[in-house]
Amino acid sequence: MERSCSGAACDSSRGSSSSSSHGVAAFFTAVLLTGALLPYIWRMAGSTLGWYLRQRTEGQRQSLLETMAADEKSFQAQQRQQAAKKDEKKTEGSDDDWENVEAEATASSGNGEKGVSDWDGIVSFFHPFCNAGGGGERVLWAAIRATQQRWPEAKCVVYTGDHDVHKDAILARVRDRFNIHLHPPTIAFLYLSTRRWVLASTWPHFTLAGQSFGSIIMAWDALSLLVPDVFIDTMGYAFALGFSKLLFRSIPTGAYVHYPTISTDMLASLNPSSEVGGQGVNAGQGVGMRGRAKRAYWQAFAWLYASVGSSIDVVMTNSSWTQAHVQALWGPLRAKKGKAATAQKTDTDIAVVYPPVAVSELEHEVEVSAASEAVREKVLLYIAQFRPEKNHHLILQAFATFLKKRREQAQQTDTPRLVLIGSVRDDSDSKRVYQLRLLANELNIRDDVEFHLDAPWPAILQWLRRASVGVNGMWNEHFGIGVVEYQAAGLIAVVHDSGGPQLDIVTQIDGQPTGFHATTADEFADAFDQALSLPDPLAWRERARLSAKRFTEEEFERKWLEQMDRLLALLK
Length: 572
Ligand SMILES: *[C@@H]1O[C@H](CO)[C@@H](O)[C@H](O)[C@H]1NC(C)=O
Fold this sequence. Notes:
The protein has helices at 7-15, 19-92, 98-111, 135-150, 167-178, 207-223, 238-247, 264-268, 283-286, 288-309, 320-336, 359-365, 392-409, 427-442, 457-466, 481-488, 499-505, 521-532, 537-548, 553-569; strands spanning 122-126, 155-160, 187-191, 230-233, 253-257, 314-317, 351-352, 379-383, 417-422, 449-453, 469-472, 492-496, 515-518. By secondary structure, it is α/β, with parallel strands linked by helices. It starts with 6 loop residues before the first helix and ends with a helix. The site of 2-acetamido-2-deoxy-beta-D-glucopyranose has 11 residues, from loops. The site of 2-acetamido-2-deoxy-beta-D-glucopyranose (NAG) has 11 residues, from loops. It is a single-pass membrane protein. Residues 122-330 form the ALG11 mannosyltransferase N-terminal domain.
């Protein structure tokens, strides 16, 4: 505070007599008071703005509710009509419709439990790119489906910037792309006109700050269309949630984070030397105005990000990796603000909610039993696009080492095979496949390696039934859906000792391993050997399958609803 005497204030105090020392004191008191009051002023301004928004949008809210109620009525009328038509057909003749009757009966008895879950408020999802059809969108739609099933009276609203797409088209795409069927009457799309503010191209400089500022503009846009009862961001726009909290303290906010906005690696490069200025590991980076400015910018941004992150009521992440990073960024401030107090068991209240993987289909398609052991061959399966980071080289080398040792020992007659399945997207992929074939030739394993390019799903399923071991050679893969699929199919995984496969997927079940981790070619070769000579492979397969269950759609829904419960509890 000593340095706040600056410019005109200092000059005037120096130039005048002792009577003006009162003036200085008054000035400092004023500065201190303003400083102390600033948070209150800030909050007051926020809630006034929020109050104004609520008034202004009340009409829109009412008309949305009315539209939804009308839609629901006509939807049910339509359903009744269809059911009646079916009944007509039934009475007309054939009675081979027993299954349908049964299905309807169970469906209606399910509806009878509605009473326990009758929350009928509005939950809105901030997802400006909702029609993109990627993994992030699968999470959004699965979350909405779970919410609709649990609270049939709840209204789901999605704020999106996809102007050109109508609701029916979006829902149809969700059905085709993800096989997710949503209940149309209680879902609405509200269209944002400010999406360009979050495009990286809008902010060639200070992109992080620019996009975050843009997301606040977009949040204002969204909230002036409708003020919801619960506000959830599923795209990583933490600042939108922070802004909502400023306007409406009483509206619970939730975030599903795929990836932190600022990485802890970036921040780590600030830490050691920032105070001394010019010493330490990253001395080079801070030298010069530019470096120092950049450092200050990141630090300021990280502080703002943490402050916003600590205002969010319920935080979920898509993996342990993301959880660890978000915890490092937001955790300390969240703990200070008492958010972590709501945590149940662990030292963090940030939940890991894995995105849903289609595990059930594989469980259905691939048998894992004593009988199916006879079908399994000594096949190592590696399903991956032929991209450089998938590290097929390493796997070929490891496989060659493994075969060589095995032949030297010469006790076994049957030769294991390595089967590489992958899609080839372009010329550079084809070239890579060619080089891999050359390498296999050089390593003398040409006849022991099979390439299957662009294999159709039924063929892949067939390999998942025949193979014993599933391989993944990529370093630091964030997750690895393919490895989950190996496990669901009962394959014993041999994966790179890093990233999601190591942290999240190939972990122990009941204190027993479900697969092997390896880093070097020799380690992989060893792991292949062990995986193919297990005394009781079936037990491993069963554990692997159990392990995959953590990533089913059902598991996602269960965890999502847990977090929704926490959000709704805040409403009371
Ligand atoms: C989480 O999201 C990031 C960013 O989209 C992605 O790279 C990662 O694979 C995701 N993790 C899971 C478990 O899907």
